[in-house]
Design goal:
alpha+beta, 5-stranded antiparallel beta sheet
Length: about 220
């Protein structure tokens, strides 16, 4: 896909209800967006951004507690090749009360090429099943398993809670975010993403994320 057009959905952090955290609201808003993604597959790519207002809040917290604050994304930036696809997305989600009450839904516009300062890839971070544990762990129990290592890493990543259409059960979709450098070997991606070609126009998966076999990069810019 070519990220020619985009729209922002800024999530409003509720100060009135301690239960309505930004993370909770982000999951609620994304569940609505994801429903539209399912009806228009491979049309939309998702990026996570932090608004200037949220950045100021994070800096205030860091200064108060003297400890680095984990990025808390309050903007879902959705890209598409055609503006008409984003217009259809808006029509599908704008009437939902959660969108009306807890988000600011912007109009689709062209990507401001002159403002692009970099590129990023967004991948689903997968956890290996316990059945995939290497046999050598039986002989070396002191070694941390691959599953445990990746589980610990997943806890530090942004994520979405998604409900399965087939089973009705909820599950977590952690997201790995990488800055892309087109001049570096393997575009600056880690060894686990060796041979991933972000130059090809891959198609997004059902969550709006890139896949190793169908990778793509999204532009970074401030508006």
């Amino acid at each position: 896909m070519q990220p020619n057009y985009y729209l922002d959905i800024r999530i409003l952090d509720s100060a009135d209800d301690g239960e309505l955290t930004l993370t909770h609201l982000r999951n609620q808003i994304y569940s609505i967006v994801h429903g539209a993604f399912r009806k228009m597959p491979e049309k939309f790519a998702l990026a996570l951004e932090i608004s200037p207002r949220q950045q100021r809040k994070m800096l205030t917290k860091e200064a108060k507690y003297n400890y680095p604050i984990t990025p808390n994304y309050d903007v879902l930036r959705i890209f598409a090749s055609e503006q008409d696809d984003l217009d259809q997305l808006v029509e599908r989600i704008k009437g939902h009360w959660k969108i009306r009450d807890y988000a600011v839904l912007n109009h689709p516009v062209a990507v401001p090429i002159a403002k692009v300062t970099g590129w990023r890839c967004y991948f689903r971070f997968r956890l290996p099943t316990l059945k995939a544990e290497p046999n050598f762990l039986k002989d070396y129990p002191e070694r941390e398993s691959l599953h445990t290592k990746r589980l610990n890493k997943a806890k530090k990543l942004p994520y979405f809670k998604v409900i399965s259409q087939s089973t009705g059960q909820s599950f977590t979709v952690p997201i790995e975010i990488f800055d892309i450098n087109f001049e570096e070997e393997n575009f600056g991606l880690p060894e686990t993403y060796k041979d991933v070609n972000v130059l090809k126009s891959g198609l997004p998966d059902g969550y709006g994320l890139a896949r190793k076999q169908h990778a793509f990069a999204l532009p970074v810019f401030e508006v």
